[in-house]
Design goal:
heterodimer, A: 229 residues, mainly alpha, Four Helix Bundle (Hemerythrin (Met), subunit A), 8 helices, elongated, B: mainly alpha, Cytochrome C Oxidase, Chain A, two-stranded antiparallel sheet, 56% helix
């Protein structure tokens, strides 16, 4: 497959890589217009995502102001080291997906695929840490949201609300990580066929934007949940 | 599929409605189409179907209110002279009853288990004492019985009312104009071949179908009695053991995605796909309205998404965020809910304003008065819409907050009045044709003016204390939502019907239907202003006798309204099969959709259009496909140079 990267678009049609053969959709005037439209569309979608999480952040702020004690006690149950490790993992993945866009632009097909794969692995690691070392033990100890709360050592009657916010916020974020991983997997499969290259990397670009947002939301969740006591 | 030569021109130039292949392949082609016109037509069919369902529910509610629901206890004298008190329920036409489970008892008075043996067993202890206990693993045998009481009748009423509200808001009015007429005409009016993301458009349609199926399944399973607003804590407690409430909320959540994707698509389309020569201020006002609407859809809908998601968590896992028993805050739900649902009121009305501008401009055949101020006004309304949500909770917040929300609510009146006066200014000295679309535009002006002005006493704190939660509110928002949006929607369907389907409708029948709708609407809802000011609270199945006459007038009005709608329906169905063929430009409009054929070809235009004049330059341009004899240009005054 690495042979593709050495080909130039001027050779015979059969050997022309897919990215060079990709034409813009019929209702756009040019490839640039299509690329701009897709980017604008993704930025608008990211706006909706920010507003979705804004609801959670508002709920966090209101209940934190209402029950500061419960939130302080609750956040002591979270281990900042796991949260910190996950932050580092997501930051690395943000770097690799940004680099994969660069790889597509410079037609470095091997590293395009490798970077997508590393991003995918980072997403998987994030989820594994979240579920195996955080959700799992906490759920087993009874540190659960709302009515399901069973933890005997609660020091504040409103700790269940804290756990509700914690699980809602990180749960919805985790679902975004899963969606992002599915998209990156789809990119990876397509990149095996040589779909992305200097003239066509719209998919990598917009999924990259989405993945950065997933990362960014975690950057806000991490201090709010783990670091502020 | 059509093919292109190197210039990008179509070889295949049949109408978008022309079937290719057999019946099944045509159906499949429609179900998987990415053509914005076909998607618009499918949305139109679905929305009108759901409008019918929601309308039937409304008629059922009105019929129920013809007489009050009441339990009457009275004394009757038997033939033999003995007296007896009987209790009966009056004024109920709809009573689905409630199913109650009661244990099955055998002849000896013991409760039975599912295996047919008694539920309890006797254990003789070592000291001879007998204790009774429920057998382990035995489940009590229950039989279900349906009982009809006053309460069950009222519950049926509540469910019909919720059905009406939820269907009309989430499935009809919010998507009505943007998803159907907007999808069809936005790309054509800016000279594009399609929306920016055609496949996303298809996805949005199927999400709409999925969300509607969720809601319909919930209704079939017994319906929801929360009201369309799903206020907590009631919505987290009602029907606690049943999934149908979750289904209804999930349906609204899913429909939100459809709304977001359509809005996103429209914004990108307007930004990127305008034809050469079409600047921002050369766009038709319908496109401006859809653009402003799309901005609200994209910015407000995610908030209802997270709200409904948290509500689902609340019902399934009892997370307690909205539950006061666990320290949660039910008013927080109201803030979240109205942060979306107030802007969404403008998602409903702004497209209606856009249609009104088109109808008045084209059918008065006059340059629209104050075009730029119209465009800025819709953007202004969209901006203000985000900071007024608190006026839905005047009684649930502090005095300062209420005063601030009251003040900013009055701001909405400014851009709205700008539009109102501009429409009237356009009509002045226009060549008005009193056909069905124009009559609908005039109805819109009349009804929307009443709806808008009755909003002012509701925004004023002191009067709102009397009027809130009364029929005054019901009448107010029906004047805006139905008298504004739906009236404009029906007017718009008439206006663009020849373009969409290539057939003319019968003008006389259309005018008859319009008059019936106008009269029926006013009889139904103007009466409710009186009911409200006299103290009739909204949402109740029963009322005191003083209100009965007004309720009866309102109910009769709703029947007239329904007949008017049926007249339109028959007119449209007849036109589809037998209507005369429509010319490309039956009204003499100047916007781009009138330059194509009726119905348009698959890629809308034979060549990419070049825009050389404004959308309402009736003073300078002879409409396409029409002759100067039919539409003579006005004589310029001598000192025009």
């Amino acid at each position: 497959m690495s042979a593709i990267s050495t080909h130039s678009a001027t050779e015979t049609t059969a050997k022309t890589p897919r990215w060079a053969r990709t034409r813009h959709a019929h209702h756009f005037r040019s490839h640039e217009e299509e690329f701009d439209a897709c980017k604008l569309g993704m930025w608008l979608f990211l706006t909706t995502e920010v507003l979705l999480f804004a609801g959670i952040f508002v709920a966090y702020a209101i209940f934190r102001a209402k029950y500061p004690e419960a939130f302080s006690k609750g956040s002591h149950h979270l281990d900042w080291r796991w949260g910190g490790l996950n932050t580092v993992i997501l930051l690395i993945s943000s770097f690799t997906i940004a680099y994969s866009i660069r790889n597509a632009q410079t037609n470095n097909q091997v590293w395009l695929r490798r970077n997508l794969l590393i991003t995918l692995i980072c997403g998987g690691l994030f989820l594994a840490i979240k579920f195996i070392f955080e959700y799992g033990p906490k759920w087993a100890e009874g540190k659960r949201p709302g009515n399901l709360f069973l933890y005997p050592g609660a020091e504040n009657p409103h700790e269940p609300i804290w756990w509700s916010i914690y699980y809602s916020a990180t749960g919805i974020h985790a679902s975004h990580v899963v969606i992002g991983m599915a998209l990156i997997f789809w990119l990876y499969i397509r990149s095996l066929k040589g779909t992305y290259g200097p003239k066509h990397y719209t998919g990598v670009e917009v999924v990259g934007l989405y993945w950065h947002l997933v990362d960014l939301i975690w950057i806000f969740l991490f201090p709010l949940l783990y670091l502020i006591h | 599929m059509s093919t292109h030569d190197e210039h990008g021109h179509d070889h295949h130039e049949g109408s978008y409605l022309t079937p290719r292949g057999g019946f099944l392949s045509t159906v499949w082609a429609w179900m998987t189409t990415v053509d914005h016109k076909k998607l618009g037509v499918m949305y139109l069919a679905a929305i009108l179907t759901l409008f019918f369902v929601g309308g039937v529910a409304a008629l059922a509610v009105r019929t129920e209110l013809y007489s009050p629901n009441r339990e009457v206890t009275r004394e009757i004298t038997r033939d033999d002279g003995s007296k007896e008190t009987v209790t009966e329920i009056t004024g109920q036409l709809f009573n689905a009853g409630t199913v109650i489970s009661k244990p099955v008892i055998d002849s000896e008075g013991r409760a039975l288990a599912t295996d047919g043996k008694p539920l309890e067993e006797e254990i003789v202890g070592p000291d001879g004492t007998v204790t009774r206990r429920t057998r382990p693993d035995a489940k009590p045998l229950v039989e279900k019985e349906r009982v009809y009481t006053l309460a069950s009748g009222n519950q049926t009423y509540n469910r019909l009312m919720t059905l009406h509200g939820a269907i009309m808001v989430f499935m009809v009015i919010v998507p009505s104009i943007p998803a159907s007429l907007g999808n069809f005409f936005l790309p054509i009016m800016i000279g594009a071949k399609d929306v920016a993301f055609p496949r996303l458009n298809l996805l949005s349609w199927w999400i709409y179908v999925a969300g509607s199926i969720f809601a319909v399944v919930s209704v079939i399973a017994g319906g929801v009695d929360t009201g369309w607003t799903f206020y907590t804590p009631y919505s987290t407690m009602t029907d606690a053991d049943h999934w149908r409430v979750v289904f209804m909320i999930a349906g609204a959540f899913i429909l939100g995605f459809s709304s977001i994707l359509t809005g996103l698509n429209f914004i990108v389309t307007v930004h990127k796909l305008r034809a050469p020569g079409m600047g921002w201020f050369d766009m038709p006002l319908f496109v401006w309205a859809l653009y402003a609407t799309a901005i609200i859809q994209v910015l407000a809908t995610p908030v209802i998404g997270i709200t409904l998601l948290l509500l689902i968590f609340e019902r399934l896992f009892h997370v307690g965020i909205f539950d006061p028993r666990m320290g949660g805050d039910p008013v927080l739900f109201q803030h979240f809910f109205w942060f979306y649902s107030h802007p969404v009121v403008y998602v409903m009305i702004i497209p209606g304003m856009g249609i009104a501008s088109e109808l008045i401009g084209v059918h008065a055949h006059k340059k629209l008065f104050g075009y730029r101020s119209m465009a800025y006004a819709v953007l202004g309304i969209a901006a203000v819409s985000f900071i007024v949500w608190g006026h839905h909770m005047f009684t649930a917040q502090g005095e300062l907050a209420a005063a601030v929300f009251s003040a900013v609510t009055f701001l909405v009146a400014i851009p709205t009045a700008v539009k109102m006066f501009n429409w009237i200014g356009t009509l002045y000295k226009g060549s008005i044709q009193l056909n069905t679309p124009m009559l609908y535009a005039l109805s819109f002006l009349f009804l929307f003016a009443i709806g808008g002005l009755t909003g002012l006493p509701l925004a004023t704190l002191s009067t709102d204390m009397h009027l809130h939660d009364s029929y005054f509110v019901v009448a107010h928002f029906h004047y805006v939502m139905m008298g504004g949006t739906i009236i404009a929607f029906i007017g718009g369907i008439h206006h663009w019907w020849p373009k969409m389907f290539g057939r003319m409708y019968n003008e006389k029948v259309g005018i008859l239907g319009c008059l019936l709708v106008f009269v029926g609407f006013n009889v139904t809802f103007f009466t409710q202003f009186f009911l409200g000011t006299r103290g009739m609270p909204r949402r109740y199945a029963s009322y005191v006798d003083e209100f009965q006459l007004l309720h009866q007038i309102s109910t009769i009005g709703s029947y007239i309204l329904a007949i008017g709608m049926l007249v339109h329906l028959l007119n449209f169905v007849y036109s589809l099969f037998n209507g005369p063929k429509a010319p490309p430009n039956p009204w003499g409009g100047l916007t781009l959709e009138w330059t194509t054929e009726s119905p348009p070809i698959e890629h809308n235009f034979h060549h990419e259009p070049l825009v050389t004049h404004g959308p309402y330059d009736f003073d300078d341009v002879v409409p396409p496909h029409r002759s100067p004899e039919e539409f003579p240009l006005p004589e310029k005054p001598a000192d025009a140079h």
